[in-house]
Amino acid sequence: MVVDALREHEKRQRAERTAAARETWTDTPYVFTSSVGTPLEPRILTRTFHALLERHGFRKVRLHDLRHTCVSLLLSLGVHPRIVMEIVGHSAIEMTMYV
After folding, report:
1. Do 31 and 9 contact (CB within 8 A), yes or no?
2. Whose CB among 1, 19, 90, 91 lies 3.0–4.6 Å from 95's, allowing a Cys bridge?
3. How far is CA 92 from the centre of its chain?
4. How is the chain split into domains, by residue range?
């Protein structure tokens, strides 16, 4: 499911690259970029995330809270804490188990 979503994203991004004038597109190593290829501005990402929450009737949460939710869900599904630690990039197992 994730691979399919990323492939669809890549197609949309390729279309954006084609639609942008050659001199305005910026190639970066990032998977998610602006419509002209530049890195996403954190404030814009946060604003967009909060707008989506509001539009769909969810309570306002911080974008970072999704990391905590991911850790909690993975641990509740029985994923080994060391694997979870690697997925989220924690440097110590204590950080993973604290969430």
Report:
1. yes
2. 90
3. 22
4. 2-40, 65-98
Instruction: Note whether 31 and 5 are within 8 A (CB).
Output: no
**For the chain, what's the residue count?**
99
Classified as helix, coil or strand, 85 is helix
Do 51 and 60 form a contact (C-beta atoms < 8 A)? Answer: no
Summarize pLDDT for 25-64 with one digit per residue, the tens: 888 889 988 888 889 999 999 999 999 999 999 999 999 9
| 12 to 35, 59, 62: CA distances (angstroms) | 10, 29, 27
3-state secondary structure of 77: coil
Helix, coil or strand: residue 33: strand
Reported as type and span, the H/E element at residue 53 is: helix 42-55
